[in-house]
Design a protein that fits this description.
mainly alpha; two-stranded antiparallel ribbon; 5 helices; 4 strands; 53% helix; 9% strand; globular
Length: 114
């Protein structure tokens, strides 16, 4: 059974992995290959949010496929599962969350500088 990672379970985690998604979707008992294929189908057919862009540092190439190491914006995933807004608006929520996180980091940096 695929479980969420410790990082996924932190309430303020900015990103989540396959374990978190599999548990939210109710398919955690399936194989990892099956879960990856399922998430790909959700993305292609149902507007599930794409994973966060990542690069293979060795080859210096973008990884454009969903893998076990893929991570997703937690807000976008939760919004999609919770059905709070249509999936096409999840990107707007991602932008809002990123701005909030940046403001929080700026405030912490100013506190440290003072």
């Amino acid at each position: 059974m695929l479980q969420p990672s410790d990082a996924d379970l932190k309430p303020n985690a900015a990103s989540v992995g396959l374990g978190y998604i599999a548990n939210r979707a109710g398919v955690a008992e399936r194989s990892i290959a099956w879960i990856i294929a399922y998430v790909r189908l959700l993305q292609e057919n149902d507007g599930f949010p794409p994973p966060i862009i990542r690069y293979n540092v060795s080859s210096r190439r973008r990884v454009d496929t969903i893998t076990f190491a893929s991570r997703w914006n937690r807000f976008a995933v939760d919004t999609w599962f919770d059905g709070l807004v249509p999936p096409e608006l999840a990107a707007a929520g991602q932008d809002l969350q990123a701005r909030r996180d940046a403001a929080r980091l700026d405030a912490r940096a100013q506190e440290m500088a003072a």
